[in-house]
């Protein structure tokens, strides 16, 4: 039973960190860019740079990937330090 609780605890931590990384990436992209659309007169009334839908989606995907990767590496490094394991240096 303790292994099961530990597994559930780790999964909750992983999902929470992943969710926060996704929100960070989404907020980062929407802060600087907006999709062209009828709601903002194809970007004419927006104070931010307007991008095509495909470009906006790719930018969101790439930023999510990079931020998620950085968060996962940081968490892995932090967990190894907490457990007292050696971290490899290049």
What does the model show?
- This protein is mostly helical and 90 residues long.
- The chain has one domain (2-83).
- 69% of the residues lie in helices and 7% in strands.
- It is built from 2 helices and 2 strands.
- The protein has a two-stranded parallel sheet.
- The chain is elongated, with a radius of gyration of 19 Å.
- The N and C termini lie far apart (39 Å).
- 2% of the residues are buried.
**Low-confidence regions:** none
User: What proportion of the residues is helical, as a percent range?
Assistant: 55-70%
Strand content: 5-15%
Mean pLDDT: 77
Shape: elongated
Strand elements, count: 2
Could you give the order of the helices and strands? HEEH
The main sheet orders its strands as 1-2
**Class per helix and strand makeup:** mainly alpha
Main sheet summary: 2 strands, parallel
Number of helices: 2
- Return the domain count: 1
Question: How far is the first residue's CA from the last residue's CA?
Answer: 39 Å
> Radius of gyration in whole Å, from Cα?
19 Å
Question: What would you say about this model in short?
Answer:
The protein has helices at 2-32, 53-83, and strands at residues 33-35, 49-51. It is mainly alpha-helical and 90 residues long.
Topology:
Blueprint (H helix, E strand, L loop, with lengths): L1 H31 E3 L13 E3 L1 H31 L7
Parallel strand pairs: 1-2
Helix pairs in contact: 1-2
